[in-house]
Each structure stands twice: as structure tokens, then as C-alpha cells.
């Protein structure tokens, strides 16, 4: 990664950037989630204004073998609207917290999108032909006077300009008192879970008026509340298994076969605290902001404020690997607490399954974001890591991105950036990796960057 | 002799905060930091968005931090029960809190933006007054936070120090009383002026109903609870409460 490797390391190049150019960011345009579908052909983003924008990859141009298809806008729709809870005199934000794609079963595409309170199943379908030649209707839809019909013909389908329609097929509402932070589709492709701060519910995709509560950590006395659920995910292969993470840095694995209410975990993953690093901020930075199973299901990855940890599901007492994302922030925690950055929820992702990084080896790489529009990748095989920047300055296609380095202390070398110069308003919280190829989508505040590896 | 003059020194931004003043006044320095962290945390708990429900995870984490500090201060013996409050300043506080609560969340959010984290990167104590008041002044309450900060310095006057902590608690009670983070029943919880214990304060924020409808009505009719009458939003919420009661009965 750092350039020292041979031909095995990925060289990331700028491919595209989507979104407004100006620095004045409209709040509604802030990207809040990014997700590739199962084939990688579609890339969905959700924003604070409740909109979903789906990009589609162009079919690969056979003559231009040195680049993959570009992503262009395929569909845009308003998924959620702002609502008002009259009971509490509070607004319900329309911000899209998560999007999850269903695997494709027919010509249409389906995705789940959620805001703080309501989950919706959207059907995205194409229409590229329409019937023409009706006997009783004109082409514009007006009905003809039957007495003018002298011959009969059979209507035929004729091609038309492609139209992509999004329609809400299911609305799953009124099941969450607290704010939804996660949705996860089960490997049975029939059920899914939704998690809020204190509860997790199980739904059937066909049934909207009922959901089953499978986890409830709300204390009888809210005075005793000290821990909340921060993320949840189904196991990729075992349809009875899921995990949820907490604000205290623990991950619980639950088996739905054990009991209807999975309040007792099957496994509890927690790393003992390092006493030498203890401070008043220890708990806050241990809070897990994202949890993701590996494609095989053998491992899971968690993201807390300063690090990414890889856990083996067979070992509960500590992670098998820990990667420091921005350890230089540890001495700045008080400032980051003051400006609330310490509560930023960074996500993390795995590279696609069984993909080849180079001709000769298959690597597992994990990716996560940081500040100053930096994002980091850790190669689990070579143990090398790289820091890259999502910036319009590097926006020439096929230009290899230059690795970045933050100078934590001491003399700053040329091209290094000192910690004090970092822009904490430029944070990369959401990243996604194409399921099959070396293409990544990285969201800055209001722009979506697409990078791909240099093809020779 | 002003503590501030004593402690101010040239600070290399890269040094660990706790490394400064090593040996000279290590213990007060830690106490000041801790007190400042406590004050900051209380302000954070108080300044919730008015229109949108506050982030529960963030609130819980801040509350846990406050609890941690309280536990440590209790062990140190620096935590004392607060007995009285000066009424004159209390009135000011209520006005101040009214101002906070009447501002839109956008105003608060915009004003709250701190230019750079480096404000806290310098000598923690030396610049604290200015930097924190930058942060705090966004809350628009001019009087109380400045009092908070200026009194942090007067180590010889612990009584006043606690008095200022009391003010911040009051502000939180008023906020809690007029907002319902999680449950409608929160609005029914009574705010008692003898409520100085941190646990009870946190209780007020997190708890479900502790009183029945009748008690809630008594709270409304009672003019003696000072905090409940001062807020500009209280009328609106009282109406909501009454409607709630009527609907449920």
C-alpha cells in the first residue's frame, strides 16, 4: 500500500465525484448513507433531506478496456418526509439513516430505507416500452368515439425512453419509540431486523402491521439507563444469529432459537480496558459506531472512535486484530468532546468477498473514514495501511491517489499534515466497497467520490 | 494572588495537557480540569435541540461521564451538598434559561460552532475563561456561564463555586421540565428546589413518570415551584399536558 509492495498492492485512482461543487453545503444535501447493491451495478445514497439517489454503472465499454463503467444517476426519489410527533411536540427527521438492498429476484430492484422511526420497502422498476395501437383510446389517452372505429387492430409494445419508477411497496411504521440506527436483512431474504437505541424488532418483509421484539434493553426504571444499542446486523449465513453493539464497547451475539426475547446473549465480546489509557473519555471512545460481519461470517469488524477491531466469533475476550485509525487524536479528546466530534459515528466496511486484489493473492482489506476528508484502509494480510484523501484536487481520472500522512508530533516532514491543521468539519463517515471489483464509494459531507484501482 | 496569573505559562500545543505544571500545582490543575469538564458536560446535557429529539446515545454517554466525575469527586471529598442559592442570581438564571429555550435549534447550532478544537489545545487553565466563554456565549446566556467560568478560578471561595454549579443544575431542571426527551410523563415530574443531588438531576432527565396525573395537576397549580413558571414555552406545554390528561381520562 505504502508503495513499498510489489505488484500486489492496489493503486487507487480517482474516477468520479457527484454532488455540488460549492463549499456552502445545504443541510438537506448531507449524505447520510451509501450502499452498493448485491451485484455492484447500483449504488444508492441517502441524504439528510430524505432523498435517495441511485447511480447505475454503465455497461463496460469493450473498446475502453482501461476503465470500468461510470456511475450515472439512475433514479432519484423522496423516500421520507419530515413528520411531526404531536404527542411529544417534536419533529421526526426525514434523514435517511440506512439503506439496505434486497437481492434481485426479478426485473425490479428492491431496497429498504429508514429514517429515525419508519422503514420503507421501495421497488425500483424500469419501463422501456409501452403499448400502442389501442382501438378505443387515442395515443394521448383520450377515448375515441366508438362510432368512428371502423377496423380493429391488436395493440403492440413499442420501445420508449427508459423510465425508472420508484414506488413504496411496504411501510413499516409505529414500531420504534427510539431512533432507528440499523436495519439488516436476514439470509433467508424474508425477514429483517431494525434496531433503535433500546430495542430490536424482527419483521417479515410482507407484513407491515406486526413486528416481533427480539431485544429490549430498556430498564424498568429509566434512571438506570447507562447503555444503548448502537448497531445490529444479521449473520450472513445463519438466519437465526445476529449481533448488536453497545455504547459501552460490547458486542452481543444472540441466537433466536434460544428464546423469543433474546435478552440473554449467547456470546459477549468485550476487550478489557487498558488501564494506562484510562480517562474520563474512555467510555465514550469505546462506544461502537458500526459492526459488520465478514462475508464468510467467521469474523466481525467493529468501529469505535479511534480504532477498527476484527473479532473472531470463536473468541470473546479480545479482538484478533486492532487497527488504529487516528491515534493522534487521543491527546485531543477534550477538545473533540467540547466540539462534539467525539460523538461522530464512523462506519467501516470489508472489501468484496473472494475477490482478487492481484493476480496471485486474495487479500482481506477493511476501510473506514476519518477527518479532513481522509479515509483509511488496512490490509489484513500484509498488515500495511494507507491513508487517502477524497478531494476535488485529485480529480483527474486514472491519476493515482497520493498517500497522505498525519504528523502527530515532532518535526513535520514535507507533505505531512499536522494534527492541528486537520479540518474536523470534513469527516468521512460513510464508505462502501463494490461487492465484486476494486471500486469504492466514499462520501464526504455532501459529495460522493468513486475511486477504482488502476487497470493496466 | 490570582490563580490565573500563577498558572499561565507558555504552552507547547503538542504537550499533553496533564503534563503541564508538573510538580508545581498538579492537584488543583487536575481538579480544575475535572470541574471544567463537569461544567461543560452539564451544559451539553442542557442544550438539546428544541425541535428534534436529542440523541439518546450522546445524552447517555455525557450523563455517564458526569456520573464518573461525581463519583470521583465524592471519593475525593470535593463534592458537597449545596444548601442555598442566592435568590437574586437565581432570577437572572431563569431569565437566562428562558432565552436559551426560546432560541431556535438552528440558532443554537450555528452559534455553538467552535472555530477550532485548538481552543483547548493550549494551556488548559490559562485560556480556559476566554475559550469556554466563546463556546458558552453561543448559548446566549451571558450571565451564568461567565459566572461559572470566573468562579472556577476562585479556589478560595468554594461556596460560590458550588453556587454556580447549582445554577447550572437549575438551568437543567428548567430545560427538563419543559421538554420531554423520551416520554410524555417526564413533563409531569416535579422540579424541587432542594434537588441538588446529581443522581436526581440525571433521574429527572431519564426517568419515566414518578407521579400520577393528580400530582401532575398539583404541580401546575402550585405557584411555588419557581422554575416552572418562568419559561416561555411552559404555557404551551402545560396546555399539552392538560390535553393529555383529558384525553387519557
Automatic annotation (TrEMBL), chain A:
InterPro entries: PP2A_PR55, PP2A_PR55_CS, WD40/YVTN_repeat-like_dom_sf, WD40_repeat_dom_sf, WD40_rpt. Keywords: Repeat, WD repeat. One of its GO terms (cellular component) is protein phosphatase type 2A complex. The keyword Repeat applies. SUPFAM superfamilies: WD40 repeat-like. Gene3D superfamilies: YVTN repeat-like/Quinoprotein amine dehydrogenase. GO terms for molecular function: protein phosphatase regulator activity. Belongs to the phosphatase 2A regulatory subunit B family. PANTHER family: PROTEIN PHOSPHATASE PP2A REGULATORY SUBUNIT B. This is Serine/threonine-protein phosphatase 2A 55 kDa regulatory subunit B. It comes from Bucorvus abyssinicus (Northern ground-hornbill). The lineage of its organism: Eukaryota, Metazoa, Chordata, Craniata, Vertebrata. The gene is Ppp2r2a.
From TrEMBL, chain B:
InterPro entries: E2F-SERTA_domain_protein, SERTA_dom. GO terms for cellular component: nucleus. Residues 127-146 are annotated as: Disordered. It comes from the Eukaryota. Residues 129-146 have a biased composition (Polar residues). Residues 30-77 form the SERTA domain. PANTHER family: CELL DIVISION CYCLE ASSOCIATED PROTEIN 4/SERTA DOMAIN-CONTAINING PROTEIN 2 (PTHR16277), CELL DIVISION CYCLE-ASSOCIATED PROTEIN 4 (PTHR16277:SF6). This is CDCA4 protein.
Amino acid at each position: 500500500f505504502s508503495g513499498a509492495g510489489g505488484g500486489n498492492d492496489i493503486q487507487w485512482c480517482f474516477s468520479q465525484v457527484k454532488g455540488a461543487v460549492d463549499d456552502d453545503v445545504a443541510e438537506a444535501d448531507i449524505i447520510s448513507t451509501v450502499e452498493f447493491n448485491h451485484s455492484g451495478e447500483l449504488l444508492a445514497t441517502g441524504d439528510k433531506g430524505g432523498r435517495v439517489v441511485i447511480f447505475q454503472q454503465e455497461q463496460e465499454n469493450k473498446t475502453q478496456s482501461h476503465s470500468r463503467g461510470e456511475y450515472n444517476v439512475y433514479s432519484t426519489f423522496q423516500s421520507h418526509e419530515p413528520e411531526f410527533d404531536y404527542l411529544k411536540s417534536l419533529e421526526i427527521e426525514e434523514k435517511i439513516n440506512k439503506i439496505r438492498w434486497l437481492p434481485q429476484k426479478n426485473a425490479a430492484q428492491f431496497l429498504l430505507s429508514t429514517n429515525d422511526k419508519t422503514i420503507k420497502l421501495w421497488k425500483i422498476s424500469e419501463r422501456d416500452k409501452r403499448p400502442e395501437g389501442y382501438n378505443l383510446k387515442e395515443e394521448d389517452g383520450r377515448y375515441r368515439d366508438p362510432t368512428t372505429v371502423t377496423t380493429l387492430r391488436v395493440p403492440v409494445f413499442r420501445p420508449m425512453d427508459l423510465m425508472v419508477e420508484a414506488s413504496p411497496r411496504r411501510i413499516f411504521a409505529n414500531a420504534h419509540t427510539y431512533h432507528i440506527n440499523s436495519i439488516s436483512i436476514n439470509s433467508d431474504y424474508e425477514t429483517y431486523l431494525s434496531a433503535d437505541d433500546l430495542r430490536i424488532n424482527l419483521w417479515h418483509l410482507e407484513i407491515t402491521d406486526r413486528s416481533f421484539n427480539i431485544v429490549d434493553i430498556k430498564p424498568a426504571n429509566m434512571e438506570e439507563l447507562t447503555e444503548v444499542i448502537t448497531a445490529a446486523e444479521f449473520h450472513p449465513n445463519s438466519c437465526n444469529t445476529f449481533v448488536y453493539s453497545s455504547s459501552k464497547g460490547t458486542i452481543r451475539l444472540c441466537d433466536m432459537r434460544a428464546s423469543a426475547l433474546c435478552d440473554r446473549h449467547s456470546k459477549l465480546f468485550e476487550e478489557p480496558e487498558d488501564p494506562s489509557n484510562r480517562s474520563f473519555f474512555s467510555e465514550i471512545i469505546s462506544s461502537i459506531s458500526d459492526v459488520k460481519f465478514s462475508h464468510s461470517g467467521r469474523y466481525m469488524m467493529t468501529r469505535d472512535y479511534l480504532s477498527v477491531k476484527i473479532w473472531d466469533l470463536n473468541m470473546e475476550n479480545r479482538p484478533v486484530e486492532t487497527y488504529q485509525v487516528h491515534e493522534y487524536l487521543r491527546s485531543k479528546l477534550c477538545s473533540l468532546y467540547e466540539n462534539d466530534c467525539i460523538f461522530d459515528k464512523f462506519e467501516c466496511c470489508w472489501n468484496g468477498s473472494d475477490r482478487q486484489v492481484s493476480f496471485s493473492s486474495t487479500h482481506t482489506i477493511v476501510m473506514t473514514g476519518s477527518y479532513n476528508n481522509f479515509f483509511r484502509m488496512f490490509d489484513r494480510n500484509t498488515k500495511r495501511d494507507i491513508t487517502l484523501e477524497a478531494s476535488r484536487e485529485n480529480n483527474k481520472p486514472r491519476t493515482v491517489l497520493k498517500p497522505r500522512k498525519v504528523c502527530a508530533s515532532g518535526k513535520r516532514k514535507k507533505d505531512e499534515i499536522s494534527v492541528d491543521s486537520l479540518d474536523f468539519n470534513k469527516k468521512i463517515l460513510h464508505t462502501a466497497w463494490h461487492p465484486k471489483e476494486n471500486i469504492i464509494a466514499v462520501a464526504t459531507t455532501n459529495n460522493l467520490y468513486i475511486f477504482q484501482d488502476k487497470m493496466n | 494572588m490570582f490563580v490565573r496569573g500563577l498558572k499561565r505559562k507558555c504552552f507547547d500545543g503538542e504537550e499533553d495537557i496533564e503534563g503541564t505544571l508538573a510538580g508545581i500545582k498538579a492537584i488543583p490543575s487536575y481538579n480544575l480540569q475535572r470541574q471544567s469538564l463537569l461544567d461543560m458536560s452539564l451544559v451539553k446535557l442542557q442544550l438539546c435541540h428544541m425541535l428534534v429529539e436529542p440523541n439518546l446515545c450522546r445524552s447517555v454517554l455525557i450523563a455517564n461521564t458526569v456520573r464518573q466525575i461525581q463519583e470521583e469527586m465524592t471519593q475525593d471529598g470535593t463534592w458537597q451538598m449545596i444548601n442555598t442559592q442566592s435568590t437574586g442570581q437565581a432570577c437572572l438564571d431563569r431569565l437566562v434559561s428562558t432565552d436559551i429555550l426560546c432560541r431556535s435549534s438552528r440558532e443554537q447550532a450555528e452559534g455553538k460552532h467552535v472555530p477550532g478544537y485548538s481552543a483547548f489545545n493550549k494551556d488548559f487553565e490559562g485560556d480556559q475563561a476566554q475559550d469556554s466563554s466563546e463556546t458558552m456565549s453561543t448559548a446566549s446566556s451571558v450571565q451564568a456561564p461567565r459566572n461559572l467560568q470566573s468562579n472556577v478560578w476562585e479556589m478560595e471561595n468554594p461556596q460560590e463555586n458550588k453556587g454556580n454549579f447549582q445554577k447550572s443544575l437549575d438551568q437543567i431542571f428548567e430545560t427538563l421540565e419543559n421538554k420531554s426527551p423520551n416520554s410524555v410523563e417526564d413533563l409531569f415530574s416535579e422540579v424541587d428546589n432542594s434537588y441538588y443531588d446529581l443522581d436526581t438531576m440525571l433521574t429527572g432527565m431519564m426517568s419515566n413518570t414518578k407521579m400520577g396525573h393528580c400530582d401532575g395537576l398539583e404541580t401546575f397549580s402550585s405557584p411555588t415551584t419557581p422554575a416552572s413558571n418562568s419559561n416561555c414555552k411552559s404555557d404551551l406545554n402545560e396546555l399539552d399536558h392538560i390535553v393529555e390528561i383529558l384525553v387519557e381520562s
